[in-house]
Every structure is written in structure tokens, then in C-alpha cells.
Amino acid sequence: MRYKVAIFDLDNCLLDARSVGTLFEPAFEAIRHANQGALAPDVLEQAIGQCWYTAFDLVAERFGFTDAMRDAGLQQFRRMRVTGALQGYPDIALLPRVAMRRYLVTSGFRCLQESKIAALGIRSWFDHVFIDDVDEAMDAPAHSRGKLAVFRRILELEACQACEVLVIGDNPLSELGAGRALGATTVQTVRPGVAAWDLADHRVSGLGELLELLSHNGVAAQPSPA
Predict the structure, then answer these.
(1) Domain range summary for the chain, segments of one domain joined by +
(2) Chain CA centroid to CA 83, Å
(3) CB of 165 within 8 A of CB of 154?
(4) Is residue 53 predicted with pLDDT exceeding 50?
(5) Do residues 92 and 122 make contact, with C-beta atoms less than 8 angstroms apart?
(6) CA–CA distances in Å: residue 206 to residues 47, 120, 125, 157
(7) Using an 8 Å Cβ cutoff, are 69 and 34 in contact?
(8) pTM score of the predicted model
């Protein structure tokens, strides 16, 4: 198959989500305070841990957050910005060698995700960047929410078929599930802390293995920058 488009996730694909350090702690503390016994302590901590891997609105829905818990988290996350430099995974510099149209599609809070992208300095590596914004999704009709809707828009922009698209990321509940529903080829980046998903078409440990996978499918890598 000759692939034309590569759609990348950000967190736990190109960037270890935990690299922001204690930035999320005010949100976590606000959620704990608002819990008021609604969730058992171990379940609450499990939910908070999932915030590193899945967008907050999906975590809140999956774990049955009360309105107070959800609103407390939203209030804090909306304020967050990364103000210093961030380091992606050690292989992130290989990304420009992926020789096809490249899209970045990331879910979360727009200002926070924008600040991560700016801190990494990677926007120019992509033909387009889309942010599946938590706040905007809450007001949007169901058919236009989530990464699947973004992926369908990309197909229209590129005038290509789903079978010509690679979706690269870590999360079965987000980009990988959407890619599978679309009929695209899914490539899971099994970074440290990421559980392997059996339904992914391919699993790689990082971008080096992704380039090898592409070469086996007839996509030669771009040369390294001089």
C-alpha cells in the first residue's frame, strides 16, 4: 500500500506527557477536593493517573466524575500553559524524515496543547495541526466531536482514501480507535507506560521502527537535515 498521509498524536507518541512535571497538580488536587467521597480513593487515583494518557473529558466520562469534580478539573486545566522548553522523546528528530503529508492531531485544552507544541518547536514539521479541544467539543454536535471527525476532514482536505492514511499514536480510546473506525492503518507507539493494543495494525517502540515499517511498504525516508 502506498501511503500518502501520516497523522500523528502528540502526548505519549512524540512527547512523554509527564514531562510537564507538576503542571497538572493543581487540577488533580481540585478534583480530589471536589470528590467528596463520590469515588473510592483507589478509583480516584486511577482516574487521575489516566489524565496523563487520555483527554480529561473522556476520563471524567469513563470514571463517572460528578459535575463538581469535572468542573473543578476544567477550571484548572483551562488556565494551564507550558512556559519553558520541552524535550520530546529522544527520537522526535526523526519525524521530518517521514516522507509524506504530515498532520498533528492532539486532544486536550487548546491553550495547553498549543503551548506544548510551541515549547517543542515542532509546528513547522507538519503540514497542518489540529487540536481536538475539550471545551469546543462540549458545545459541538456529536457527529463533529473527537478525532474521528478531524480525520474525516483530513481525508477531504487531501482528497485521499482512508486506506492511504497512517494513524500513529498510543491510545485505543482516542486516535487509534478513530483510525480503526475510519479504515486507516493504525500504528501504536508503545512508549514506556503504554499498554500494547492487540487491535493495532502495527506496534512500534518509536519513530525509528516507524521509518523501518514505512521502508518495507515502499516509502523511502527523507534524508537527514544537513
Answers:
(1) 5-17+85-216, 18-77
(2) 20
(3) yes
(4) yes
(5) yes
(6) 26, 17, 17, 27
(7) yes
(8) 0.91
| Mean pLDDT value across residues 26-50 | 97
Q: What dihedral angle (degrees, nearest 10) is formed by the CA atoms of 79, 55, 118, 205? A: 150
114 pLDDT band, cuts 50/70/90, is very high
Q: What is the DSSP letter of 195?
A: P
Alpha helices by DSSP H, the chain:
25-35, 41-50, 56-63, 67-77, 110-120, 134-139, 146-158, 175-182, 207-216
Which tens digit of pLDDT belongs to each residue from 142-186? 555 789 999 999 999 999 999 999 999 999 999 999 999 999 999
Report the Cα–Cα distance between both ends of the chain, in Å, rounded.
30
CB atoms within 10 A of CB 67: 9
* Cα separation, 133 vs 37, whole angstroms: 29
**In the numeric block, which cell numbers belong to residue 64?**
463517572
* CATH superfamily of the 5-17+85-216 domain: HAD superfamily/HAD-like (3.40.50.1000)
